[in-house]
Design brief:
The protein is mainly alpha-helical and about 260 residues long. About 75% of the residues lie in helices and about 0% in strands.
């Protein structure tokens, strides 16, 4: 375990080495959060309820998006595609470590640092604007939302690994990742809660994994889901976790068969 903790510390050190990139990334996240916050605040002017949300629930959703997206989407798996293409992957295959644990350790390092920043940003904005905040008091629902968040973290990690493993067969590894990022913004509930969409589009989004990255954990926390909806959401989440797990390992094995690193 000690060597994997060193990997986590190394990930922190990388962020500190490129501090400007990290700071600009966090500024971008805060700016997007502020735009959404002021937009929904303006929409709820003189309105008690809209789309089934009170103002406090909607603003809580907006504030939580920044934190949940940081925890779920914070990843270093995008580097794996570059490792495959450059042949640097060979350096890790011959070392006495499990490559998947190595990737998980890198993700833990990225998530913890970004999560601390996201929580600081959350507290700062809360102190500045004093928004109406929905505080969930039901212990069962809080526990359920943490389980949903854990599933979304695992699901996104597997999904991101799959995108990186495309590097075994193609040099175009950034295009699929960019497309997935756009889909996550729209169908993951980053820009707005998915249930404000037309019913047909919302039903379609519930089948895809993107909505379970961001929207579902927050929705569980807000307590707006019935027992059947929660069970259905957890069932879909578990399905995607298991499905991605199988695809990740199958793709890894097939990828290693065609992997070459001439001169490395």
């Amino acid at each position: 375990m000690k060597k994997y903790f060193q990997i986590i510390k190394g990930t922190w050190a990388e962020h500190m080495e490129y501090r400007l990139n990290f700071v600009l990334w966090r500024v971008r996240m805060v700016m997007q959060l502020l735009v959404a916050y002021f937009l929904w605040s303006a929409i709820f002017t003189n309105k008690q309820q809209l789309f089934g949300y009170t103002q406090s629930m909607m603003l809580t959703y907006v504030l939580f998006v920044n934190v949940v997206r940081t925890i779920v989407g914070g990843t270093r798996t995008q580097d794996i595609g570059v490792m495959i293409q450059s042949g640097e992957l060979s350096n890790y295959l011959i070392r006495p470590l499990n490559f998947f644990r190595f990737a998980i350790s890198r993700d833990v390092g990225d998530k913890t640092l970004n999560a601390l920043c996201a929580m600081g940003e959350f507290l700062l904005l809360f102190a500045l604007f004093r928004p109406e905040f929905y505080l969930q008091s039901n212990v069962f629902i809080i526990l359920a939302s943490l389980i949903a968040l854990s599933l979304s973290i695992i699901m996104f990690f597997e999904f991101s690994l799959l995108l990186s493993f495309l590097g075994f067969w193609t040099n175009e590894i950034w295009a699929p990742r960019f497309i997935s990022f756009v889909l996550m913004e729209f169908l993951g509930g980053v820009l707005f809660p998915l249930d404000v969409l037309p019913k047909a589009l919302f039903s379609f989004a519930q089948i895809l994994p993107f909505g379970y990255f961001i929207y579902f954990p927050i929705k569980v926390y807000l307590g707006q889901l019935s027992s059947s909806d929660m069970i259905g959401g957890f069932s879909v989440s578990v399905f995607w976790v298991v499905f991605f797990w199988y695809l990740v390992h199958a793709t890894w094995k097939r990828g290693l068969r065609v992997y070459t690193a001439v001169g490395k």
